[in-house]
Amino acid sequence: MADAPSTQAVAAARPSLGVVAGETMRRLLLRPEATSVAALVILFCVFSYLSPELFPAKLTYISITSFAAELGIVSIGVTMLMIGGHFDLSVGAVLGLTSYFATVLMRDAGWPPIFAAPAAVLVGAGLGAINGALVVAFRIHSFVVTLGTMLIWRGVVIALTGGFPITVDIPSVFRDVMSGTLIFGFRMSVVWFFAIGAAGTLLLGRTRVGNWIQARGQNEQAARNLGVPVNRVTIFLFMLTSALAAMAGVIQVARFASVDALRGQDMELQAVAVTVIGGTLLSGGYGSVIGTVLGAITFGMIQVGLVLAHAPGHYFRTLTGFIVVAAVILNTSVARRMARSRPLAGFRRGNVETDAALAGEALADNEAGQPTADAARGSP
Amino acid sequence: MSQCKASLVSGFIRAAAMATTAVAALAFAGAAKADEKPLSIYFVGCAPPTGFHGYLARGAAEAGKNLGVQVTYIYPDELTIPNQVEKIEEAIAAHANGIALCAFAQDAAYVDVAKHAKDAGIAFGSAAAPPAGSQVRDPNDIYLFRTGSDEKAAGALTGKRLIALGVKGGVVVADQQPGDATCRDRADSEIAVLKAAGIKAEFLETSMDPGQESEAVVNYLRANPGTAAATSVCHISSGLLSAKKDSGKSDLIITGYDLDAEALKAIQDGRQAFTIDQQQFWRGYMPILLLTHYLKYGLVEGNYFLTGPTIVDKSNIEQVAKLVTAGFR
Amino acid sequence: MTDASPAALPSGSGSREHHMPRRKIDPIPAGAVPVMEAVNISKAFGATTALVDVSLRAYAGRVLALLGDNGAGKSTLIKILCGVFPPDRGELRFQGEPVRFTNPAQARGLGIATVFQDLAVCELLSVTRNVVLGREPQKGFGPFKWLDIKRADEMARSALLKLGVRWERGLDERGVNISGGERQSLAIARAMFFGSSLLVLDEPTSALAVRQAGKVLDHILQARDSGQAVILITHNFRHALSVADDLTVLAQGKVAAHFRRDEIDLDELTDLVARIA
């Protein structure tokens, strides 16, 4: 496979430690999540300055993460779908409809939550499958399809509830498992949120379906030509997005023991905002679930920070909007500047032969138990 | 040649048959017309018939049933003056006998369409409260009547009741639908009444999502520890009740609007102090009644009629609870 | 002009077989079964006729250049060959057996690798992920299969080395940072590595600078030499003549001419196409 490299060539290709460190830093900053971390840090400093006694406190963090968890779970689905090149405006309506479904199952059909909750998530997946099937079969833009289904599902919830909220008795175990403040005061919903975030990150980065999702978002035709089952990937993504919306709905039902006709309204746009703050491109193909997790926390931080900073009550939306736009501008401008950057001098990569030689060396080093330069160079 | 003639003849026969049928149909229709046709009344609403507006629609439907008139509830998808006026025009075009309007804007916005209805011989009335301070009906009013609940009065009533309850600390007024005029009216008048009595009252924009609202209010309470009461102005009180529980402030006075299952329970077990009932059912029912009696008997109200607000609290909750489940309150 | 032995020249210089005079090409052995054969293919889109009675044969170890002006039907023919849509009339034969594709995945399954001009590479994926796209190696079992990135890296390295591609950067470089020529080379390397039987290239050199185009042409020859059948669509006669063993000219949806490479030279070809196009 590789020509036998001369040690000289290998040595010449090996960069110095300082350069490796600098290059690692550069690559970290290139990641889509980097800018949402930056936004988070900046906002933290600003709000801590504005309310020094109240903001940097555990209660604040609990509140921020609680806020972020429910919105974040929905947003993770929206993010993965957006990376795959599609939009879903119906997530809020799906959340409402599946919440209603879960409530009715528990209240009227007497199902215990252990069955009602997964049933609601399955219904969510089914609604997502409808979205996906419509997009694939009729080749209509997902924006339009999900705009339509949003109206349909929302209309169904409004009609079925008659506009009335419905309450249901929730066993305390279920409420605690889904949303109880069990983890040192932090809510269980945050645990679910992080778990789903981890699962989503693994799916995107470590499975072949993840590769397919990114490929579909970047170059659908090329992916198709290479045998990627593009249509199945699309339907899968829509099902996943709606199932996650249903999951968030179940958490809310557990927490508030009720559902109302407008549950989930406007969440679809918040989810898009969170996704974009997190570094995912609206044009698809590129993004990060971790970025969305950070974006949801950022969004929560904005909301909580404004209240604690005594921001004038009439201007919340305006201020939130300003900050979201600023975060996105920061995001894209830093990303652009970084993308134009070149690897540091002294980190000029060898060609494939040298790569092979270094890889061979790395293998040998591993067997000898030494750390290698591979660490600075892993494939994304 | 004879073929031609034959087809001509059959054509004539067919035409004659059709003409006879048409004449017969007309005759029947004419005969039917002579019978009493139910009055057709259109209720032009402000929003889809759910929640708050569901009561209006149900009240109107009940009135229609009781009085034997046909009631149709229509509404604009998005509440703007042009959209609503368009809906009124549709009702006029549908040859309604009477139109009741959920008026949300000043009279000036509806003057033209009111004249249009009048010229078409259609009775036109407002299902919205009269401007404050006017009790006796103005003979030149563009509306045949005005009947409704006053949002400003509702806000003021909340404020007054809070003062009567002896609230000393601050009050936070949470608006879940910023941008909605009804909510704004309620909030502004409550804050005005409280401020006039020297009590701190602040406006807080929250959202329809109970989780997000809960977090916002919990943090408000942290930033304003002297807060004694919280009012939910435009949605169910789940978010506020959750915030009360999470923040541990068990003495926080919660008030809200309208009656739903959650508010009922909360009033019954004491978590919520009271709620304002605008008696929207009446607001849907009364206009139909007033229109019908005008069309049938020529009766016109002498005084403008306010259908609400009224307070529902622990003292009358039991009686009201049953009616809530039935959808009347 | 060029040295006869390619080994004396650095690879990638693009100087193999680029002089125009005729050279000797082996005739197709009698009885050889073409890897892919189109038999009397016709296709129309509504009122527009794209192809009328087109037949061609692609043999293993030979490059077939498909020439013709825009609108002559080349793209349609290629799409039929790689399974995007079926022909209205006529049939395709793979290794002598009739086949009918309902989707590109089926063609891919038989080893037909198609590289369209702009669609070789996903710009935001790394080189490794691009190379293994659609055939990702996995480890693990049951529902918990993970992407084997280490093996994917090895596969990408092998593929590129085999082709003798001199990559100036590493395997985690994103597609957007790769030049056009390198993208085509990547696509060819990918096809070769995963063992395609027929490589179809649609205008691989049109957007490339001369040096890059030269490299891609070298890689095409390497693909041929490794035993693949290659169909090369181009409207650049020089490039076609420099690599092709056989040439077919399409005009107005019909096969206008077919030559072996040593039966024609650049001037004759130019005249011919000018006359019939």
Structural class of chain B: alpha/beta
Count up the domains of chain C. 2
Helix content of chain C: 25-40%
Largest interface: A-C, 37 and 43 residues
Neighbour order of strands in the largest sheet of chain C: 6-9-10-3-11-12
Q: Could you tell me how far the N terminus lies from the C terminus of chain C, measured between alpha carbons in angstroms?
A: 32 Å
Largest β sheet strand count, sense and barrel closure of chain B? 6 strands, mixed
Instruction: Give the SSE order of chain C as H and E letters.
Output: EEEHEEHEHEEHHEHEHEEH
What fold name stands as the CATH topology of the largest domain in chain B? Rossmann fold
Number of domains of chain B: 2
From the alpha carbons, calculate the radius of gyration of chain B and give it in angstroms. Answer: 26 Å
Q: Tell me the CATH architecture of the largest domain in chain B.
A: 3-Layer(aba) Sandwich
CATH superfamily of the largest domain in chain C: P-loop containing nucleotide triphosphate hydrolases
Largest sheet of chain C: 6 strands, mixed
Q: Report the order of strands and helices of chain B.
A: HEHEHEHEEHEHEHEHEHEHEEH
CATH architectural label of the largest domain in chain C: 3-Layer(aba) Sandwich
Strand content of chain C: 15-25%
Low-confidence spans of chain B: pLDDT under 50, at least 5 residues? 30-35
Walkthrough of the structure:
By secondary structure, chain A is an all-alpha fold. Helix content of chain A is 72%, strand content 1%. Chain A has helices at 7-13, 17-30, 33-50, 58-83, 91-107, 113-138, 142-161, 172-179, 188-206, 208-218, 220-225, 230-256, 267-277, 289-308, 316-340, 352-368; strands spanning 166-167, 258-259. The model of chain A is unreliable at 1-5 and 369-380 (pLDDT under 50). In chain B, β3, α4 and β4 form a beta-alpha-beta unit. Chain C has 2 domains: 60-85 and 101-121 and 184-277, Rossmann fold, CATH 3.40.50; 125-177, no CATH class. In chain C, α6 links the parallel β9 (198-202) and β10. In chain C, α4 crosses α5 and α5 (180-193) runs parallel beside α6. The longest helix of chain C is centred in the last third of the chain and has 16 residues, at 210-225. The model of chain C is unreliable at 1-20 (pLDDT under 50). The A-C interface holds A 1-2, 205-208, 210-212, 214-215, 218-219, 221-229, 285-286, 343, 349-353, 355-356, 359, 377-380 and C 82, 104-105, 108-109, 114, 116, 119-126, 128-129, 132-136, 138, 145-147, 149, 152-154, 157-158, 160-161, 165-173.
